[in-house]
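Narrative summary of target 7.
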Amino acid sequence: MENSLSRDVQMQFMRSSQLEAAIGKFPVVYVPFGLIEWHGRHLPLGNDALKAHAMLVKCAEQFGGVVYPPLWLHNGFNQKHLVPIYTELFQRLKNTGFRVIIGVSGHNVQGQIDMINRALEPVIADGKVAGIGVWEITLSRSEESDTDHAAKWETSNMMFFYPDCVDMSELGDEEIILDMRAPWGIGGLDPGRGWQA
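Modeled conformation, tokenized:
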């Protein structure tokens, strides 16, 4: 699989005529969610949204649809204010002509999916559009892969999609402590010996 990300399916790079044509062919929009948080010393802080975005670009390249730019505000923010903002975004996507809205979170916690689905509820209520929130691991899990935090799988994803954003030397030569707390922020299989691009 080629790891370069096509601009042809990314909304922020499209002109209006390209967006209209894409919607006419396959009216699906993929909306990647994540957050800014510690991901070990070796991965970028925006890891979760970046990996979801990259996977969705690959999905759209293969099946069709349009990928919205990554969204960084997450379920840790006040839901009273955030959910209506995402509802308005989804409504605008519906008004643009999309008939399927797929919110995909690279931050694999239930609260994130609940937030996406709550924001979708009023938009899909009339049955004119379908929508669902899912974890990015739903798209990539196999017998050989799983979810983790800054460990083998997230490191592998970032090495594949954004190798210039990963610096394994930041982990140093000392034994890696698999601990979600700072200074490590790693949960899962050892990223130093288990990753592969």
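The CA atoms of residues 133 and 163 lie 28 Å apart.
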